[in-house]
Each structure stands twice: as C-alpha cells, then as structure tokens.
Design brief:
By secondary structure, the chain is mainly α. 78% of the residues lie in helices and 0% in strands. It has 10 helices and no strands. Helix 1 runs parallel beside helix 8, helix 1 packs antiparallel against helix 10 and helix 6 runs antiparallel to helix 7. The mean pLDDT is 94.
C-alpha cells in the first residue's frame, strides 16, 4: 500500500513553490533566448524582478522572521543582538584589506548560503517523511551538494566567464583536473539518486516526491544556469527564483500559524 506523500505544506503549495519557481525560471530563460538576451548585457528589468524583488526580498523576510518577532528575539537575544554587530565589524575589516578581498569573501559566503538552503529543504523533507536511516541521510547529503557544488567547480575551472557572483574576479580559479575528478562523482550520484527514487516508486512504494522535486529542480537549474550556458542572464534567472520563492513560502506559512 502506497503511503501518503510527506509534503511540507501540501501537494499544491509544494509543487507551486519548488517546481513552479523552476518552471518560471526556464520560461524566462526561453523568453530571453528568443529575444537574444543570452549573450548580451542582462537587461535592468531582470535585475529588478530577479534580484531586487525576489532575492533581496527574501533577505528582508529574515528580518520579519527574527527581528520583528518579539518571541523569537526573546528566545535568543544575545545571538540576534551580536550577529549584526559582528557582521559589520567583520565586513569593515575585510574591506580594509581591499575591496577585492571583501567581495571575494562575500561571494563565497553567498554561494555557500545558496548551497546549504537546498540541503535544508532536502533535510526537511526527510524529517517530514520519517527518513532516519544513516545511509540515506549521507547519500541525500552527497547528492544535493553534488547538484550545487559540481556547477560551482565547473565555474571555478573555466574563469573568466561572462558572469560573476558579485563582481568579476570574486572567485579563485581552480585547475581543470578538479572538474575532471568531480564530473564522474557528480554523474554517479545523480544516477544513483534517480535509480533509488525509481525503485521506491515502482517497488517499495516508499516515496518522497517533494524531496525528488527539490533535487531535480536544483540539479536542472544549477546545471543549465552555470554549466550549459555562459550567460549572465541565464545565471540570474535560474539562480534567484528557486532560492527566494520557497523561502518566502515557508516564512509566510510560519506567519500564518503564528496568527492562527
């Protein structure tokens, strides 16, 4: 007997925020390709819609979730009080070492933040499904990190590229052998995950479709936006929406439960 799928919100909402944001990204990618934007300067509307209204807005949602929530502030006052001060001091110290050092440090922190958010979604789906096996946890961890880190490794071994995380030169070049070693590991992990999921759907009937959607959309968007296309427009539209939209949904869901 097939178990009920362990959605974070509901099937409709989960598919809307995870699959829907990815499909929206690819729709914008197709639109950009039809207008010849893949190999031109990214238009300002892309920055406004993708970065300002999506990515920056999801940062502001963190303020709502933490600093504008009196219960949360009282729960960890020292942590939430010290973090902005220490972040400012750290950033000022980095900038004194040079603007290139400052932007490089921020680029790696931001990239790791994007990587770990996708890992967080996978772990939430595992928890919701009651998946507690050690091997499964390690395997899922390896898969979602491969889906994000391999494209970053590819990026680092092919510098300079037509796009940067923040500014040109913020990533450090790596020798090509690193990518050549990472590629078969990436392929093996992606194929292994697909086979394991197929076995669950066809044989054991133990499925976690939300987790599968997160892994599939992450792998597709990161590969297309970073590896397949050398385009600032492509990187922007495949990067920000799958990052910002699900986060907005979970903060909205938290707010509704608090108001209930």
């Amino acid at each position: 007997m097939t178990r009920a799928a362990p959605w974070l919100f509901s099937m409709r909402v989960d598919l809307g925020v995870f699959l829907g944001s990815a499909l929206f990204s690819f729709a914008l990618l197709a639109l950009g390709a039809s207008f010849g934007l893949l190999h031109r300067d990214t238009p300002e509307w892309t920055w406004v819609v993708g970065v300002l209204l999506a990515d920056v807005a999801h940062v502001h949602l963190t303020l709502f979730r933490v600093y504008l929530d009196p219960l949360e502030r009282r729960r960890r006052p020292w942590l939430y009080g010290l973090v902005p001060v220490l972040a400012y001091v750290g950033c000022a110290a980095l900038f004194r070492l040079g603007s290139d050092v400052f932007w490089r440090a921020l680029a790696y922190v931001a990239a790791w933040h994007f990587v770990r958010q996708q890992y967080g979604w996978v772990m939430l789906y595992r928890a919701r499904a009651g998946e507690t096996d050690t091997f499964g946890r390690w395997f899922d961890t390896a898969v979602i990190h491969a889906a994000t880190l391999y494209p970053l490794i590819h990026w680092h071994t092919r510098l300079p590229r037509a796009f940067a995380w923040f500014v040109q030169g913020d990533f450090v070049a790596l020798p090509g052998v690193v990518e050549r070693v990472a590629w078969p590991v990436y392929v093996a992990l992606m194929a292994g995950y697909a086979l394991r999921s197929a076995y669950g759907y066809l044989v054991t009937r133990r499925v976690n479709p939300g987790k599968d959607v997160v892994v599939a959309t992450t792998a597709a968007c990161w590969y297309v936006g970073i590896v397949a296309l050398d385009s600032d427009y492509a990187f922007t539209v495949t990067n920000v929406f799958i990052h910002a939209v699900p986060y907005a949904a979970i903060v909205y869901g938290y707010g509704r439960r608090r108001m209930a």
